[in-house]
Amino acid sequence: MKKKHDTGEVTGESPAAAKARQWVMRTRCGSTPPEAEAELDDWLRADPDHKQEFDLMSAIWEHTDVLKDHPMVLKTLNHRTGGAMAWLQNFLAGFQSLRPVATAAAVLLAVACIWLVQSLMTAHQTFQTATGEQTIVHLKDGSKVALDSETVITAKITRSKRQIELKIGRAIFSVAHDRKRPFVVTAGHVSVRALGTEFKVSKKHADRISVAVLSGSVQINRTPYYAAVNNVETMIRVETHSRQQQQISSAEMNPAHAEKIIASQPKPAARPTVQAQAVLDAGQEITVYAKEADYHVTSVDIEYMDTWRRGRLYFRNAALEDVVDEINRYLDRKLVLGDELLRDLRISIIFNIKDRNHFVTTLEKTIPIIAQYTSNNKITLVSSTTPQCCVN
Description:
CATH topology of the largest domain: Jelly Rolls
Number of strands: 25
Shape: globular
CATH architecture of the largest domain: Sandwich
Helix content: 25-40%
CATH class of the largest domain: Mainly Beta
Structural class: alpha+beta
Distance between the termini: 75 Å
Largest sheet: 16 strands, mixed
Radius of gyration: 25 Å
């Protein structure tokens, strides 16, 4: 049976199989925007047959890894890309004689083969987001990475390892299980090895890295230069927070209500110190400073750990300096504090990322500040109670 090039459908396929094949190829070839992820989830939930066909097509895709050792593929890789594509076109021609029941799998297998040859020639991949942009990246091993605004990662997936580097920004990694290939994320002086998990890594500044675990566990390591000071083993000071049980519905998400709920959370309690090569479990977060021998682990509420992925930013009794540093990643015109007295001002607030153009207005309505729009493409925040003659 022949493939219909105008529609991408294959004669003999059921509608569910055709759609599943399209979804697999779409999600396995680069980044997928959040709205497409939501569309796929809706489609999978609509009918059990949809998930069955999607799982089948995904399995076919994943098992094409064996083609990388095929003699014909290896021979072709010694030639130019054009030669590889010519060979693959001949390879595709062989599918014309297959029975309809096998055609869908054969076409997907051929497309996957093309993808594999191309990926072997470009082992490293780079993914990045612009200011205010968020996206989901599907790695070749089946893992997913949610990239926040102003984030850059590089990925190298081979038969023996999965190596990701977070250059800058923030990302959540949902790791596909594969015991034979370690999944390691590096960010500056910190490396994170997944032990079957979903976790977040943030690198806003070169000297400060944070890692939080949403499920499963991770192993944290530092480079030797930072891991020991004067031959004394680094220790970790651990603090824990009781998790807040109360849920916040979308109808209740406003700064006034959020502040009351957030303020009710218990104060942190001390926990014994542990050794340097830390293993973090779900609900724990670690912050590592490049120039400090110690680093700190805290327990955090999983409900709030990935709110940015759901389109919201939560701050509980946070210093205004930290709030500004966080929301600047979503703003083209960056905020600066023009009044030293504002830096330690504590604030509890929720922002809707889609309304990022109203961040400044929300701040002005919440705390006593005035926004001054300057000619250097920045916005200076000053206290509304400070005489203008005293503002730097």
